[in-house]
Amino acid sequence: MALEITDANFESTVLQSDKPVIVDFWAVWCGPCRIVGPIVQEIGDEFSDKAVVGKLDVDHNPQAARTYGIRNIPTILFFKGGEVVDKQVGAVPKQILVEKLEALL
User: What residues are annotated to the active site?
Assistant: First the structure.
């Protein structure tokens, strides 16, 4: 399951994590986000012991989206050691996201 990431918990959940982190920047009104959402949830279930997987609603949490220059959604950022190390914009097959995450483990 993917965690709900907000502006309030972003630093503690993402930047201070000792595990790799995936953050799915999305919005309710975004069609492609509805395609990626279930994939992110599955990855969260499969990697729950190895990584932090979360979703951040850009409409309710504009600060993090602004900080990381999110202009298109869905955008998935991959963090390691508090730094962005990879990025995926748009809907893609699950395997692409899994490969990017596995490269950080």
Answer: 30, 33
